[in-house]
Amino acid sequence: MRTIMFAACILVLTVCSPSLDSRGKKPTKNTNPLSADEIAIYRAVLRQYVSHEPGWLNVSATTYPLDSSSPMNRLLDEQCIQGIKLEKLDEVASSFHDLTADVLPGENMRLVDPSKQGKVVRDNDPDKTMRKGKSVDSAVKGAFAAALFSISEIAFDEGHHHAVVSYGFWCGSLCGNGATLVFEKVGGEWKRTDRHCGGWIS
After folding, report:
1. Sequence-separated (6 or more) residues with CB below 8 Å from residue 169
2. 3-class secondary structure, 96
3. How far apart are CA 10 and CA 16, in angstroms?
4. Is the Cβ–Cβ distance between 178 and 71 less than 8 Å?
């Protein structure tokens, strides 16, 4: 449990500090336009997530590096990517993209500056607002409304039949969740598989 919480904290720092990757180095901006496959996967992740969470979703306008060695991602776990050989792991672990509005599948989403939204998240941290007298219900609702949803870079296999991506929903110091997902291209569409990869909740 301590490992999971520590890794979750590292992920939150990575998500909210896009100027550093998980190794403490400055990631480089990937200026190549997002491919049709990348856009489709990002839309699938967002569509799946908002089906579980009501209200407006603040989506980070930049991705964060996908670190295959992170204990949260578990990409080295055989159950996660058994039989899949991912390519360019070094590249996706040290780069990020700017997202464009075409990755958003719904009207109840907007792209936000992650640094500015990070401040809003900290100001609405339930731990902080409850100390100021807010009820638990009101504090949690405020935190969810202010929360920042961030998505990682995507790792593909050689034939672009499989892809791995992670996300994080951060709503405070002890408020958030995230997971690493594996997608498979079936009949021209990217579908989430049931492979067991990393996940966290705080």
Report:
1. 49, 53, 147, 148, 149, 176, 177, 178
2. strand
3. 10
4. no
Instruction: Give the residue from 122, 172, 165, 147 showing the smallest Cα distance to 57.
Output: 147
Question: In angstroms, rounded to a whole number, what is the distance separating the alpha carbons of residues 152 and 121?
Answer: 19
User: 């060695």: which residue's tokens?
Assistant: 69
Integer CA distances (angstroms), 80 to 90, 92, 122, 185, in order? 18, 18, 33, 16
Question: The domain containing residue 150 runs over which residues?
Answer: 2-201
Residues 78-82: contacts with CB under 8 Å, at least 24 apart: 79/195, 79/196, 79/197, 80/164, 80/180, 80/182, 80/195, 80/196, 80/197, 80/198, 81/162, 81/164, 81/182, 81/195, 81/197, 82/195
If you count DSSP H runs as helices and E runs as strands, how many of each does the chain have, helices first?
A: 7, 10
Q: Let me know: does 123 contact 150? Beta carbons within 8 Å.
A: no
The string of pLDDT tens digits covering residues 50-105 is 865 567 899 999 999 999 887 776 676 667 888 999 999 999 999 999 999 999 99
> pTM score, two decimals?
0.86
- The Cα–Cα gap between 96 and 151 comes to 10
Number of domains within the chain: 1
